[in-house]
Structures are given as structure tokens and as C-alpha cells.
């Protein structure tokens, strides 16, 4: 795998190095030893998969409150999405900045998102599937959310939003009281 650190400290784009033969290809998508170079040495305790039918759908922007902040490894295995993260780490040099990248079944890229980030995506095609690895369990009541259109962040979504959950429409807007997330 090839790890490329983004402008955000500890956020990595992970590219596969598939080994091809007459049958197709084979590739690692996670290796404890290789991932050490990113600084991540945790353990995946949950894997999730989502399917999104319509192009233009937004899911996000989600995080878990401390002490349940989580690292996520996100990969698109069908279709194409614009994947977005927001740096919520208190005292980070890139605090409140966002970053977006196209993930698709075709480019086979993944993003390693450390604790202290909100995550979301918009589908750029119908019938998109994502898989997630998490190093913390999902817990109701510890979920935090940031509005996909919060002017304090100003994410430029590539398409008009066609579908979004009630929950994602109800995230409160950030105000000056928000000082970020303390990570472990
Ligand atoms: C995230 C999650 C949801 N659920 C349940 C709650 C709800 O009934 C149903 C759908 O949940 P949501 O509406 O929160 O699904 P969704 O909006 O797709 O949530 C996901 O969004 C992306 C952007 C992420 O980063 C993920 O970590 C996750 O937060 O599944 C679980 O049982 N376990 C989980 O880990």
C-alpha cells in the first residue's frame, strides 16, 4: 500500500498496490505492519457497509464525542463519492478546515481518518457502497454532527443535494463556543 499524508496531519490517502494475473488482481487493504507508518496502531473493532441509491445524496458530517472518538478507514467499493472530512481537533493547525477527495470503486482509494474529525460524503453516481473500519464501537448518544452546509465550514459539495436524512438536517450550526475536540 502507498500512504500519502494530506495537508491534515495524520490523515492519509491509502492507495492499493494490486498484484495482477490472468484471473484479475489481489490486494491488501489493511496490514497492521504497513499501517504503522501512519502512526495508527489501534485495532478495528467494527466494520460497517452502507449502500446509497441516488446520486447527490449526502451522509454526514459525523463524529463520536470523546472518550469514544474514533479512527475510521473509509473505502468506496461501488460507484463514486466525494468524501469529506472536517478537522475538529482542538489546537490543530488546520482546525475547522475541510478536505474532500474522490473515492471510487475504480480508483480503489481509501482515507484513514484519525480521531477528532467529522466525516461525510456525497454520492457522485447512483448505487454507491462504502465500507468502514472503526476502532471504537458505535454508541447511541455519543454521536456528534455538523451540518453539511454549515457556513462556518463552507464545504463545496459538487452536486445539488438530492437526499439527506432527517438526522443530518437537524445538526446545529457551530458557534463561537465551539472550541473543538480534545483527543486522547
Ligand atoms: C453508524 C451506525 C448506525 N447504526 C444504525 C443507526 C440507524 O438506525 C441506522 C443508520 O444510521 P445512520 O443514519 O447514522 O447512517 P449513516 O448516516 O450512513 O452514518 C454513517 O455516516 C458516515 C458519513 C460515517 O462516517 C459513518 O461512520 C456513519 O456515521 O444504522 C448502527 O446500528 N451502527 C452504526 O455503527
UniProtKB/TrEMBL annotation:
One of its GO terms (molecular function) is dTDP-4-dehydrorhamnose 3,5-epimerase activity. It is an enzyme of class 5 (isomerase). It catalyses: dTDP-4-dehydro-6-deoxy-alpha-D-glucose = dTDP-4-dehydro-beta-L-rhamnose. Keywords: Isomerase. GO terms for biological process: dTDP-rhamnose biosynthetic process; polysaccharide biosynthetic process. The active site is at 62 (proton acceptor), 132 (proton donor). The keyword Cytoplasm does not apply. One of its GO terms (cellular component) is cytosol. Pathway: Carbohydrate biosynthesis; dTDP-L-rhamnose biosynthesis. The record marks 138 as: Participates in a stacking interaction with the thymidine ring of dTDP-4-oxo-6-deoxyglucose. The keyword Isomerase applies. It comes from Hufsiella ginkgonis. It comes from the Bacteria. Its EC number is 5.1.3.13. Homodimer. Catalyzes the epimerization of the C3' and C5'positions of dTDP-6-deoxy-D-xylo-4-hexulose, forming dTDP-6-deoxy-L-lyxo-4-hexulose. Belongs to the dTDP-4-dehydrorhamnose 3,5-epimerase family. This is dTDP-4-dehydrorhamnose 3,5-epimerase.
